[in-house]
Amino acid sequence: MRHARRRIVRRATRLASVGGIVLGAAMVTQAVASEPPAAAPRVLAEGAGAGLVEDTGAGLVERLGAARTAGSWRDDAGRPVVAVTDDGAAAEVRGAGATAKLVRHSMRELAAATEVLRAAPRVTGTAWVVDYRANEVVVRGDSTVSAGDWSGMTERAKGIGDFVRMERTEGTFTTRINGALPILSTAGRCSAGFNVTDGTRDFILTAGHCGPNGSVWFADGRGDRPVGRTVAGSFPGDDYSLVQYDGGRAGDGAGVVAIGDGQGVRITGVGEPSVGQRVFRSGSSSGLRAGEVTALDATVNYPEGTVSGLIETNVCAEPGDSGGPMFSEGIALGVTSGGSGDCRSGGTTYFQPLPRALSALGVQLIASGPQNGQGAAPAPAPSGPQSAAAPGTATPISAEAGRELLARLSDPRNIGPGLLVVGGSLVALVATRWIRTEQDRKAYQRHYSATWG
Q1: How many C-beta atoms surround the C-beta of residue 427 within 10 A?
Q2: In the annotation, is 261 catalytic?
Q3: Cα–Cα distance between 321 and 338 in angstroms, integer?
Q4: C-alpha closest to that of 114 among 79, 70, 54
Q5: Angle CA(9)–CA(14)–CA(20) in degrees, nearest 5?
Q6: What is the DSSP string of 389-422?
Q7: Cα separation of 372 and 14, whole Å?
Q8: At what angle do helices 56-64 and 87-95 cross, to 10 degrees?
Q9: What is the pLDDT of residues 213-246, one digit of tens each?
Q10: Could you list the pLDDT tens digit for every one of the 453 residues in the chain?
Q11: CA 93 – CA 95 distance, rounded (Å)
């Protein structure tokens, strides 16, 4: 009986050790596959499994008003910072658990400056944003802006005040169309953004400059795989459009955006970004890219027209990435509009905010339910042939994305717990094996002694 009990204990210990190794390996795999942690956005609409979260900085700005604040952002540690114009507002911000920064100019003054710029004659190749952290309005001019036009804008900026900063930028501000997959038409080539629905039919939400109403889209260059037709949109002014699926349905995996290499990210809700927030963009030309939000409510004067209310980021993009999704922690934030630079030298990319587009078009995001309670965990891209019905394509992850993966592998916060479980389980398994060997050896010695004297 005693030997039977020992066998049961040993067996249970081995099973527990093997189970621990499997669990630890799963934890490490989840850490490697998961989207890197980022500051949580302000969630506006709940998808399946999405919680309603109020961003502290944005909430304080809204409560205190434009005359006493000048925007909010997140510091390097992800904590909210609010720009305020008086000591009373600063005390309220600190009382709410955020950091207050006293500034000279309120959001009302900064917004008035952008209105003066917007009312002036349009100069192609210029853009402006409100820099919350510097408490300034920044006007940028690309290489196509002539010396005369730039001089005229500089004089206009001086008339507004010393809080308007003029900057020249390399490259040109262009929309990011042409030369990419997965959706193609006679108007050009773009990337699918997010899948949306009006409750009856499903659509692709992409950039408005990709093509006018009536544009017919295909998933291949020969026109053998029709996707749908553009039925609504706005450009310039805004930059969004709807492509209605030919079959009326997006199909399986509609709540997943592909990030390449057969991987995808489950999208669980819609939100607004914060300045300083880490974000990700997926495009069929340059794959998965990461960066941070640098400004909100940007205005860009493209050659095709002016677009306002955009999100400015330092994420790179290239031709063909237009319309591709921007997201963070499984929350959909916007679709790629345009910018300057490329993914070799870096650049600036602007995004159409998603909430405004959804509201104007009268549609809702098709969200994905959380997997095992993990709302932002990536999931495999839908199986079967890749098409615009599954946003994005199985594009190999770029070198930059590989560096992101290595960063996650080397971050003890991500894989430390899993490795600890694996290590402990291996020790237990080895110890169990050693104890069993010792017990067998001693039993053999006893048997040998009793037999031979």
Answers
A1: 12
A2: no
A3: 9
A4: 70
A5: 125
A6: TSSS--PPPPHHHHHHHHHHHH-HHHHHHHHHHH
A7: 27
A8: 140
A9: 999 998 776 677 888 999 999 999 999 999 999 9
A10: 544 455 555 566 566 665 665 555 555 444 433 444 444 444 443 333 333 334 578 899 999 999 999 999 999 888 999 999 999 999 999 999 999 999 999 999 999 999 999 999 999 999 999 999 999 999 999 999 999 999 999 999 999 999 999 999 888 998 754 322 358 777 677 888 999 999 999 999 999 999 899 999 987 766 778 889 999 999 999 999 999 999 899 888 889 888 877 788 899 999 999 999 999 999 888 889 999 999 999 999 999 999 999 999 999 999 889 999 999 999 999 999 999 999 999 999 999 999 999 999 999 999 986 544 444 434 333 322 222 223 222 233 334 444 443 444 444 544 555 556 556 666 665 565 555 545 544 544 444 343 333
A11: 5
Mind giving me the DSSP string for 121-160?
PP-TTEEEEEETTTTEEEEEE-TTS-HHHHHHHHHHHHHH
Q: What is the 8-class DSSP label of residue 407?
A: H
**Count of residues for the chain?**
453
3-state secondary structure of 52: coil
Residue 354: which of 213, 211, 195, 180 has the closest Cα?
195
Select which of 241, 284, 322, 387 is catalytic.
322
List 55, 142, 239, 321, catalytic entry: 239
Q: What is the DSSP string of 212-255?
A: -TT-EEESSTTS-SEEEEEEEEE-SBS-EEEEEETTS---TTTT
For residue 46, what are its two tokens? Answer: 């709940």
Catalytic-labelled residue, pool 55, 142, 191, 209: 209
246 catalytic residue (yes or no): no
Return the amino acid letter for 409: L
User: In which region does residue 444 sit, left (phi positive, over 0), alpha (psi from -120 to 50) or beta (all else)?
Assistant: alpha
Return d(Cα 79, Cα 60) in angstroms, integer.
Answer: 13
Cis peptide before 378 (omega within 30 of 0): no
Specify whether 142 is catalytic. no
Q: How many CA atoms lie within 13 A of 248 on its CB side?
A: 3
| pTM beyond cutoff 0.90 | no
**Residues ≥6 apart with Cβ < 8 Å to 229:** 214, 215, 216, 217, 243, 244, 246
The DSSP letter of residue 374 is: B
DSSP-derived letter for residue 182 is S
In what helix (H) or strand (E) does residue 378 lie, and over which residues does it extend?
strand 378-380
Greatest alpha-carbon span in the chain: 111
C-alpha 330, offset from chain centre: 7
Query: What is the DSSP pairing of strand 136-141 with strand 164-168?
Result: parallel
